[in-house]
Fold:
Amino acid sequence: MERSFADRQTSPVSADQATPEAVPTHRAAGSESSQLPGYTTGFAIRLVAAQFLISLALFTPVTVSLSLRVSQIDPDGKASSLSTVLAIGGFLALIGGPLFGALSDRTTSRFGRRRPWVAGGMAVGFVGLVVSGLADNIAVLACGWAITQLGVNAALAAMHAVLADRVPDRVRGRISGAVGMMTYVAMVVGAVLARALTGSSLLLFALPGVLGLAGAALINTALRGDPPADKGALPPFRIGSFLRSFWVSPRRHPDFAWNFVGRFLVFVGVSSATGYQLYFAEDQLGQSTHEATGTVAIGMTVMTIGAVFGSLFFGWLSDRTGRRKFCVYTGTAILAAGIAGLATAHSTGAFLAAITVFGLGMGAYLAVDTAIAVKTLPRAEDAAKDLGVLNVANALPQSLVPAIAPLFLGIASADRTNYLALYLFGAAAAAAGAVALRFIRAVR
Structure:
């Protein structure tokens, strides 16, 4: 899903990238319901607010709540258990976005294409959050988080398609950027919220879920008149055809293949740096759980500030010079340096400095990531589908990194948990991503 860090860092393919066709802004006169409202500033505000609230339901657990609950249930094996929970959830997020996006495109309900999936998906996600909050063992927690990922990603897949459906091209870049930025904001607010709710496992998960339901209701009120799908516009959904549509020949389209590989490696680095911050603060910095949640909240804040600055500056620089690769190399080098800084941090100040550098590099990379992606697409006619394929490279590390992280965390060292090995692996992966991107010929 083409979103911000959020949307780019922690989530799968969005429906707006899986659906090339936009819905007309108005229905023809004499249609069975009132005219579909056009784009307004109020609509944009509700869209952005809904993205924030639904992201809060998803990223509060990712940032803090899951780590806290796992450490309560399995304090001795918390790193390995968290990896299991995140890997299962990440895999379902990977398939959930494009799957539910494709189903939303074909929904002929009288309530429209998007509204049933936004409301129903968030309702299922809320059930999963409640199950997670009440879980007393890792298996139940993993099950609850899997339900949450499927439900919330169904809601997000339908909601992000609204950008193509309802937002005109003249403002789509700005609104897309604002929607994407809500992922960063949700991470910061979620970390602060979780710190205030550490006394109640249920509220840690349920309260963000309630806010997510409010977000779904907010955007659904703005989508009154959302038309159902035209039965003849798209072929019937077939799982085989759906899976085959995600293959793009690397021999025929080498630039696209190198971009996929580069993206994948960079987001392996990003996922390595963001998944274990609470445990790092507890184990490496010697903080209590309450202190660690505060450190993570501050870390998310400074990381977001760094990402915003890096995105604005390097986005401007790349537009001014036309040299996208330079910004990618610089951004990835800064990002890798930030991850390496985390590997050697032994104080709160060093941790915050490293995460700020990491955010700056991440913002610099993401500022030109989409511009490079567009230049490497095989065919303009399949732009939405092919962008969806590229975003698999963003989402896949969310499940792969937690699956392999225990191999690095368990390497024998003086520390009980080897964060040094994990973070150095992440830094090396991000640097390798920059090397892969240099083989792209279509971009300067």
